[in-house]
Amino acid sequence: GKIHEVNHSFERLFGYTAKELMGKTSLDIGLWEDIDQRQHMIDKTLKEQSVKDMEAVFISKDGQKRVCQISCNMTRIQGEDYILNDIFDVTDSVNLREDLKRLATHDHLTGLANRSLFYDRFDQAKAAADRHHHHLSIIIMDMDKLKDINDTYGHLVGDKAIVYLSEKISSVLRKTDTFARFGGDEFCIILNEMKNTDGTQFVLRKIDEALSEPMILDGIQIKVQISMGIAVYPNDGTAINEHIKKADKAMYQVKQDRGLGYRFFSELK
User: Fold this and answer.
1) How far apart are CA 233 and CA 6, in angstroms?
2) Number of Cβ within a 10 Å radius of residue 46
3) Which strand (E) or helix (H) includes residue 247?
4) pLDDT tens track for 188-214
5) Contact assessment for residue 190 and residue 121, using Cβ atoms and an 8 Å cutoff
6) CA-CA distance, 184 to 177, in Å (whole number)?
7) Residue 235: exposure state from Cβ atoms within 10 A (0-12, 13-18, ≥19)
8) What values do phi and psi take at 181, rounded to 5?
9) What are the b/e assignments for 51-63, b being 16+ CB within 10 Å?
10) Rounded CA gap, 180 and 114, in Å?
11) How does strand 226-233 pair with strand 135-143?
12) What tens digit of pLDDT does each residue of 143-154 get?
């Protein structure tokens, strides 16, 4: 596995001189981010005599990570076995691919999940809840008086208010929960692994606490107010659209009562 020769392109890409590399292995210089991939490449090359377009992350001399495609072929030179490696830097293409994927599944303003990703996450959460006999809480939330903020201070301040809201609420949720923006001032949350409504009420209180202080945007002090409605899986149905409809109904009851806070669909008469 010792390096016998490299070309100038390898030197430029990874920052090593040929002199620094001769007689060393790729493990010696810490080239592979995942050393198990190296062993997989070697095993496959020895078995099949070649590897085609294997994707791996390599680390350059200055610590920079580069996503590369590597192709290998076995050859014999003067009675000795060698592996010839062709390495192509595809970092920019992979980053573009990930960016496009993220644009398709996340809200462009807040970075939260969008409706499509939210629906996928619900299916996953539902399957886990069925296996472990847990409940899910689906929370629909509106930012009250966003139109007034936009009309009074402009849409730029309104957008900043939405980002502020999303960051504050994200800070009190678990990584296993899903927080999504459906558009405008409409947000939706999936709380996973809920055994009873006490856990959901605890999270709701944490959200209220996080938003208790007025936000200050561009020197303007604005009180953040939200209304929330909650549906519970499986008590309130099985389909996500059914839960959203019921949570939405509970939220509008909160708005009609003109009281800040939340209401469960099960509490409606």
Assistant:
1) 59
2) 12
3) helix 240-256
4) 999 999 988 899 999 999 999 999 888
5) yes
6) 21
7) middle
8) -110, 125
9) beeeebebeeeee
10) 5
11) antiparallel
12) 888 888 888 989
Name the DSSP class of 48.
H
What does the angle CA 20 – CA 23 – CA 24 come to, to the nearest 5 degrees? 70
* pTM of the model as a whole: 0.69
> Which has the closest alpha carbon to 14: 2, 32, 1, 38?
32
Long-range CB contacts (within 8 A, 24+) of 123-130: 123/240, 125/178, 125/190, 125/192, 126/233, 126/238, 128/192, 128/193, 129/192, 129/193, 129/233, 129/234
- Tell me which residue has tokens 């573009």: 96
The C-alpha atoms of residue 14 and residue 63 are separated, in whole angstroms, by: 9
Structure tokens at 169: 């609420």
Pairing type for strands 215-217 and 135-143 reads unpaired
268: left (phi over 0), alpha (psi -120 to 50) or beta: beta
8 A C-beta contact, residue 42 and residue 74? no
DSSP alpha helices (H): ranges in 76-196?
91-105, 115-132, 146-153, 155-170
